[in-house]
Write a structure and sequence with these properties.
The chain is α/β, with parallel strands linked by helices. It folds into three domains: 391 residues, Glycosidases (TIM Barrel, Alpha-Beta Barrel); 62 residues, Oligo-1,6-glucosidase, domain 2 (Alpha-Beta Complex); 85 residues, Sandwich (Immunoglobulin-like). 28% of the residues lie in helices and 18% in strands. It has 16 helices and 24 strands. An eight-stranded parallel sheet has the order 15-14-13-7-4-3-17-16. A five-stranded antiparallel sheet has the order 18-19-20-24-22. β10 and β11 form a beta hairpin. α5 packs parallel to α6. The chain is globular. The mean pLDDT is 96. The structure holds alpha-D-glucopyranose.
Length: 572
């Protein structure tokens, strides 16, 4: 094994990452928003799960139009989150616990409040003009092309002062950086090195597969849905070259763990991004499995989710990435998604079983699992009241757009309630005291009123809780090599309620069977696989989510939302 510094090269393959959305994690000042000291205060809780990497979302200086994904200064901490001393203390306290910090890097765009953008906007001749993407108006004076922002409306903003448009693929205050400009690439290298030297162990690279745009900026003819221009900048012409440059200059020399957030990507590209021989990233996030409830790929329309499609996508990526030597970041939840617990399972009567089922099903796969704050205690989507309770810029924009498209206020509010990123941004539920122990002030977004029932304190104390279920799964990843190297084999063959798969290496076979329905189900293992059972030296239940677990035989009876992980030992 290759050792760099004091760590093996691929040390993160048996790790589990915990994602902290600091604004909603823990407030130590009474301001109503969480802060860095709040994260430090809760490290023992996170360590207690067995976590070894903490992903901290952006805490840089920012006008907070997109909760920190609009960075105005890459080198300083936003006072709302604390100080650089607080950050350094977090790094020290993590190290003391043998844990690593992964920070969020947002360099597809900067805030329009960034000094570079202010300079760029000041005149066409300014030295920073070329840090951003400027184009002349179209013949009719409108935007240069028909590309759409991911948050709604045109992707171009007009600047009166200089008479040109600049590109913004997200909010109008998030200006896309011009990666064609080598000075921009050098700025990114410099800022990454600054943070690496501060002692962070890795980076989560925000929408990094969008950094290279087709330089002719063509019109999108709509022939490939959604026709919003994304085909001209997603996994764009020079993206792999740019990532390789970052790897050579920063990731490799500092032996960092890196995860690229890949928007609307392909399997082929993710293999390239994450195969170690390519020298790009450690692993990739993709979102295909979280679009199985989008009719025709449209996020702001609703349909029940397609279970078969969900299983197929997860399976295709397992097999494809394994064959291509890539590595998946595994996740159900993050700060941009409604909670999977509400979306794919039963967050009421079977909340406890469902949360454990999702955990077991995901953590049995190959890749590095990510746990998003609150997932480990089974936080569901909230019961929203009024549209005024929402804070997220995308949700608020989309509400207006849905009204313009002719939806009634009730219809528009319903869609936003189901889809909003705010669903997962509610404060962490720590205990049953006032405001769930999150703040002593007025929270920036409402607190889920179910905190007397759902909270971290009671779960830590209960050995049968969802929290301890996660703890066991995270431990198993360290103790059972088959979870890291086992070949994937899907076993449910299109069953309408069950997701079942095996992972196999030369010594062991892991079997995961999960019933995603509220009914009791009889599940037959495929004949080709059942033979393994008779040849087994021993079979052991590793984990389940009901008091009594069924035995692993050719035909298994599964209770509602029952989910189990077994290990079959195949050598003597
Ligand atoms: C990523 C972030 C999201 C943000 C967007 C623009 O998708 O996860 O929260 O709004 O990038 O930076």
């Amino acid at each position: 094994m290759e050792i760099i510094g004091n760590l093996p090269r691929d040390w993160w393959r048996t790790s589990t990452v915990y994602q902290v959305y600091p604004k909603s994690f823990k407030d130590t000042t009474g301001s109503g928003t969480g802060d860095i000291r709040g994260v430090t205060e809760k490290l023992d809780y996170i360590k207690g799960l067995g976590i070894d990497i903490l992903w901290l979302q952006p805490v840089y200086v920012s006008p907070q139009n997109d909760n920190g994904y609009d960075v105005a200064d890459y080198y300083n901490i936003d006072p709302a989150f604390g100080t650089m001393e607080d950050f350094d203390e977090l790094v020290r306290e993590l190290k003391r616990r043998d844990m690593h910090l992964m920070i969020d890097i947002v360099v597809n765009h900067s805030s329009t409040e960034h000094r570079w953008f202010k300079e760029a906007k000041s005149s066409r001749d300014n030295a920073y003009r070329d840090y951003y993407i400027w184009r002349d108006p179209a013949a009719d004076g409108g935007p240069p092309n028909n590309w759409q922002s991911k948050f709604g409306g045109s992707a171009w903003q007009y600047d009166e002062g200089t008479g040109q448009y600049f590109l913004t693929l997200f909010d109008k205050t998030q200006a896309d950086l011009n990666w064609e400009n080598e000075k921009v690439r050098q700025e990114v290298v410099d800022l990454l090195i600054f943070w690496a030297k501060k002692g962070v162990s890795g980076f989560r690279m925000d929408v990094i597969n969008l950094i290279s745009k087709e330089q002719t900026f063509p019109m999108d003819d709509g022939s490939i849905p959604p026709g919003d221009g994304r085909k001209f900048y997603t996994d764009g012409p020079r993206v792999h070259e740019y990532v390789k440059e970052l790897n050579a200059k920063v990731f490799a020399p500092y032996n960092l763990v890196t995860v690229g957030e890949m928007s609307s990507t392909t399997l082929e590209n993710c293999i390239r991004y994450s195969n170690p021989e390519e020298n790009e990233f450690s692993m990739t996030f993709n979102f295909h499995h979280l679009k199985v409830d989008y009719p025709n790929g449209q996020k702001w329309e609703l349909k029940p989710y397609d279970f078969e499609e969900l299983k197929k996508l997860l399976s295709d990526w397992q097999i494809g990435m394994q064959q291509g030597g890539g590595w998946n970041a595994l996740f159900w939840n993050n700060h941009d998604q409604p909670r999977a617990l509400t979306r794919f399972t039963n967050d009421g009567e079977y909340r406890n079983e469902s949360a454990k089922l999702l955990a077991t099903t995901l953590h049995g796969l190959q890749g590095t699992p990510y746990v998003y704050q609150g997932e480990e205690i089974g936080m569901p989507d909230p019961n929203w009241g009024d549209i005024s309770e929402f804070r997220d810029i995308e949700s608020l924009n989309m509400y207006e757009i849905l009204l313009q498209k002719g939806k009634t206020p009730e219809e528009a509010a319903h869609i936003v309630k189901v889809r909003s990123r705010d669903n997962s941004r509610l404060p962490m539920l720590w205990d049953d005291s006032d405001q769930a122990g999150f703040t002593t002030g007025t929270p920036w977004i409402k607190i889920d009123e179910r905190y007397p029932l759902i909270n971290a304190k009671s779960q830590v104390e209960d050995p049968e809780s969802i929290y301890h279920h996660y703890r066991l799964l995270i431990e198993l990843r360290k103790s059972h090599k088959v979870l890291t190297d086992g070949a994937y084999d899907r076993l449910d063959e299109g069953h309408p309620q069950v997701f079942a798969y095996a992972r196999r290496n030369t010594e062991q076979t892991l079997v995961v069977i999960s019933n995603f329905s509220g009914e009791e189900v009889q599940f037959e293992l495929p004949k080709r696989f059942a033979a393994n059972l008779s040849a087994a030296r021993s079979t052991e239940l590793l984990l389940g989510n009901t008091e009594e677990a069924p035995e692993l035989t050719e035909s298994v009876k599964l209770p509602p939302y029952g989910s189990y992980m077994w290990i079959i030992n195949t050598i003597n």
